[in-house]
Structure formats: C-alpha cells, structure tokens
Specification:
The protein is an alpha/beta fold. Strands 1, 2, 3, 4, 5, 6, 7, 8 and 9 form a 9-stranded parallel β-sheet that branches. A two-stranded antiparallel sheet has the order 10-11. Helix 6 links the parallel strand 4 and strand 5.
Length: 343
C-alpha cells in the first residue's frame, strides 16, 4: 500500500471501480479505464485475471451467449488475457494516477502473477468462495482477503470468513446479489448490519444495480468498501455493461459519498447554529408594524398592528404586551414599532 492510499475501516468508504472484462481484451482500453476511474475520484481500479488454461476447459459454454466471435467461454477467457508484463504496466499506471490496483484472480496461476505485482488486498469473486485451494493460496500471501457473498448462503460465507481469520489475515465481506443488473428489491442493504454484527472485519457492498443509489444508501450505514462496475459508455460491448455505472455517474457517486461523510462527521448543535444565523433573522423574520398612520397618544388595539418584514422591530411575541399601551409619538403606515414608541 502506498503512503497516500487511504486506510480501510476508518470511517471513510473505500470506492473500487470494477472494470472486470469490459476492456474486451484491449490493453489500450484497460489503460483508458484507469485514467477515467482515477479522474472520477475512486480509490481503486479493479480488474479480473482469467487464465483460460488454468480455470476452464475448451468445452465450457456461455451462461448467456453474448459474443459473436467467441464460441465458448474458454475462447473468451483467452481473448481477455494480458501478459504478466502488461498487467505490471496496468498496476504501474494505477500508481501513477494515485489509485490502487486490485485484480481478482480466478486460478492459483493468477495469484502467482498478482502476488509478484502486489496489491492492497485480494478480492474473491462470488463464484470462488467455495474454491478452498484458491482461497488458501491468497491467504498464504498474508494480505487481507475480501469476499463477495453474491452466490453464498450464510453458512458458506461463515466458513470462508472463518478460514481467513483463523489464518490471521484481515478479512472483509461484501453484500452482493448476483443479478445483472440487480433490481432494488434484491440489493439487500439489510445484510450490512447483519455482517457487521456477525463478523469481525470490513463490511461493504458490491453493487450491480447500474445506479448510484445503493452506494449512497449504504455509505450512510457505515460501509468500509464499495465496489461497483464501471463502463466508459453504456454503448460499450460486454456482459457487465448493463450492470455498470458510467464514469460520469461514478464521479457523482464519489462526490455524494464524500459529502455524506462530511455531514456525518459534523454533528450539528442547533443552539450554536442559531447564533451564527442570527444576522439572517433580521432579514427573514417579521416585526410589528402599523396598518395605518397612528397619532401620538393613541392607545394600541389588536387591529392597529400587523407582521411584516424585516425583523428588526418588535417581534410577534410582544403583541400581547403592547396592545393597550399608549404611543409616545406618532407611528406612520408600515413603520416598525419599537420600544421608543411606547409609554
């Protein structure tokens, strides 16, 4: 971790912009994502490392056929692959832009490559929580391990978190629902306090709603980490685009999160606030004024006075006190009543 990288779990939400495979195998596009996500104010740019030969078989079918050029997911994984040197270049680009490089491995071979490159923590994809050999290889590096709970019942999440913590590693769990895009009914914000109570570790949200709303709501609940898919445009190609926010929306989200954090860190004292706004009261409040010209010696009655701005005269609370009193001097139409007028 660089000296300038924010700590996690200190009351500041750590925002990860997930590229996944939306670069579509283009190294230039991957670097463009680094620039765009960094410019939007995120803390980390996240990728996925798929090594076809290490995680798949040539017969692996698509769950949803989206690619016209790849016959199988194996073909797709191969087309998405970068060399270790290219991954190193992406990590260095992240450092140059002041964001963390995070990449989820999907095989032990991927862990080996990423371990040499180095990253702040490991992020385990929802489908890999039960892959104990892969989890153990990440744990063995001594870095923190953050898991997504998208496909897991609580028992499986319990087992993974226990496995990480027994080894002495910092652990984190993200509420996640594997739906692309995820409807509001399935976001599951109720799991955040449950995870906080259930586990001793970081808690966050991996959001696939393609909106900024769950992230803003979750940060008010004190999450440590927010992960969400990002696209340069909703017209880009790829299976994750429908579940992504644009980089412009990511910027708005980050600004909203930091705004919320500043609000939460600054509890308001209403009495102190009233003192600071006292000069404004003279502008926005009202005073007792004459509804018509009233002569000297006139005894004030209920119908003689009305409330109008500004509030530099006697306030409404004095009405009962001044009714029945005699004027020491004449009061013109719309003139503010003051103590000097009263006998």
């Amino acid at each position: 971790m660089s000296q300038t990288e924010p700590e996690i779990g200190t009351g500041r939400c750590y925002v990860m912009g997930e590229v996944a495979l939306t670069h579509d195998g283009s190294l230039g596009q991957a670097h463009a994502f680094v620039d765009a996500i960094a410019a939007a104010g995120a803390d980390a740019v996240k990728f996925q490392m798929h090594i076809a030969e290490a995680e798949s078989t040539p017969s692996e079918p698509f769950r949803v056929k989206f690619s016209r050029q790849d016959q199988t997911r194996y073909d797709y994984w191969r087309r998405m692959a970068f060399t270790p040197e290219q991954w190193q270049g992406l990590a260095e680009h992240c450092t140059e832009r002041g964001v963390a490089f995070i990449c989820s491995p999907f095989s032990n071979q991927a862990v080996e490559v990423l371990d040499r490159i180095g990253q702040r923590f490991w992020k385990v994809a929802s489908g890999e929580i039960g892959h104990r050999a892969l989890l153990d290889r990440m744990i063995a590096t001594g870095r923190p391990v953050v898991i997504s709970s998208g496909m897991s019942p609580l028992a499986e999440t319990d087992a993974a978190m226990a496995r990480i913590q027994v080894a002495g590693s910092q652990a984190g769990v993200l509420q996640c629902t594997t739906a692309y895009p995820c409807p509001p009914e399935l976001v599951g914000l109720n799991m955040i306090p449950l995870f906080r109570q259930r586990y001793d570790g970081w808690v966050g949200l991996s959001d696939h709603s393609a909106t900024i709303y769950p992230g803003l709501a979750a940060v008010t609940m004190g999450i440590d980490i927010l992960e969400l898919h990002v696209t340069l445009s909703r017209e880009m190609f790829g299976p994750d685009v429908p579940a992504s926010v644009t980089t412009a929306e990511l910027r708005q989200l980050v600004e909203g999160i930091r705004f919320i954090e500043r609000m939460q860190a600054s509890p308001l004292d209403k009495d102190e606030a009233a003192v600071t706004t006292e000069p404004l009261r003279a502008i926005f409040t009202r005073s007792l004024v004459a509804v018509r010209a009233l002569p000297e010696g006139h005894t004030l009655a209920d119908g003689d006075l009305v409330l109008k701005k500004p509030g530099t005269g006697l306030p409404e609370s004095r009405l009962a006190d001044v009714v029945g009193r005699r004027l020491l001097r004449a009061l013109d139409l719309d003139e503010l009543l003051t103590e000097d007028h009263l006998a």
